[in-house]
Write a structure and sequence with these properties.
alpha/beta, Rossmann fold, N-(1-d-carboxylethyl)-l-norvaline Dehydrogenase, domain 2, six-stranded parallel beta sheet, four-stranded mixed beta sheet, 10 strands, globular, disordered N terminus, binds NADP nicotinamide-adenine-dinucleotide phosphate
Length: about 300
């Protein structure tokens, strides 16, 4: 079900069941990287009382200018928060931030933990179990959309988990995204994200191969992109990535290392479920090599270099 986002109402009292934290919507944001940084900034600018933590202090510090309080640990960020958002690279980093020394779950029971990074099915199950053991409400809510939509508050939030906290989270999600889709029990958000990012990976690979094919045939790949754009064959994402590939500007919007991680997570989920992802299986070895040869931090469009 897609829900239209209500306008965020800064300062609106939020009832979370955690009585001592009900007066103001304090939000802790753990992981202020390419996605998390602008998301946390939007919350702070949107009037929320935001506490931020990042492993690299210099990545969290600029958010102080937006009114966020920079914490020394995830636990410190979470201590006065009703809602804790994690937006970290992967499952291992997220578990460390939750249960390691100074982890967010040290803040005590009753928090709503909104896990928004893309960590895959197995990690989501594991993190949900840890949350349950520690008395936290776990919401599995990865996002669709990259750095631009994160900055613009235009993400699509693939939310799943207990229905009783939807109203509490609506103003927060309203700032972060243009749509929230509630998909059922925790885990379904992550499964949906893997399906979408598997589509993304295959589209990126197909784009790279198409440009390479055209070039080797002696054609001008830019003319092929123009043709694709002029008819329904040219998906907007593929056309945009094709232009990036031809321009050779691989400054990252979505880093290859994360796209590779997501393709690996999709392949794992496919294997566990009995699905066959022939295209994804075929692209993985070259993507691994491309990332390992110094392009992991480049945009996923860098797969064109080896196509
Ligand atoms: N970029 C996109 O287009 C996009 C779109 C949708 C979803 N996602 C997903 O969102 C998540 C974040 O992506 P991003 O693009 O923001 O990545 P990013 O810029 O690389 O940021 C990753 C974050 O994780 C932290 N981190 C990494 N390893 C860590 C560790 N071992 N311990 C503690 N913190 C660690 C980083 O800390 P440092 O600051 O210290 O490096 C940073 O805060 C990923 O799961 C990604 O797949 C990305």
């Amino acid at each position: 079900m897609t829900t239209t986002q209500p306008a965020a109402q800064p300062g609106t009292p939020v009832s979370t069941g955690r009585d001592d934290r009900a007066a103001t919507p304090v939000v802790a944001f753990i992981g202020t990287g390419r996605m998390g940084g602008p998301m946390a900034a939007n919350l702070a600018r949107g009037g929320f009382d935001v506490r931020v933590w990042d492993r690299t202090v210099a990545h969290a510090q600029p958010l102080a200018a937006d009114g966020a309080v920079v914490a020394a640990s995830p636990a410190e960020a979470a201590r006065s928060a009703a809602i804790v958002i994690t937006m970290l690279a992967d499952g291992a980093a997220t578990e460390q931030a939750a249960t390691g020394p100074g982890g967010l779950l040290d803040a005590g029971p009753g928090i709503i933990w909104v896990q928004m990074g893309t960590v895959g099915v197995e990690w989501t199950t594991r993190l949900a179990g840890i949350a349950a053991d520690r008395g936290a409400v776990f919401i599995d809510a990865p996002v669709s959309g990259s750095e631009g939509p994160a900055r613009a508050g235009q993400l699509v939030i693939l939310a799943s988990g207990p229905a009783q906290v939807r109203d509490v989270l609506a103003p927060v999600f309203g700032v972060l995204g243009r749509d929230t889709v509630w998909l059922g029990p925790a885990g379904n958000g992550t499964k949906t994200k893997l399906v979408l990012n598997n589509w993304l990976a295959d589209l990126a690979e197909m784009t790279a191969e198409t440009l390479s094919f055209a070039r080797r045939l002696g054609l001008d790949p830019a003319e092929v992109v123009d043709l694709l754009q002029s008819n329904p064959l040219g998906a907007p994402y593929a056309v945009q990535k094709a232009r990036v590939m031809l321009a050779g500007d691989f400054s990252p919007a979505f880093a290859l290392k994360h796209a590779l991680k997501d393709a690996e997570l999709a392949a794992q989920a496919a294997q566990a479920s009995g699905a066959t992802l022939t295209l994804t299986s075929a692209l993985l070895p070259r993507w691994r090599d491309t990332a390992a040869s110094g392009h992991g931090d480049d945009d996923v469009a860098a797969v064109y270099l080896t196509a």
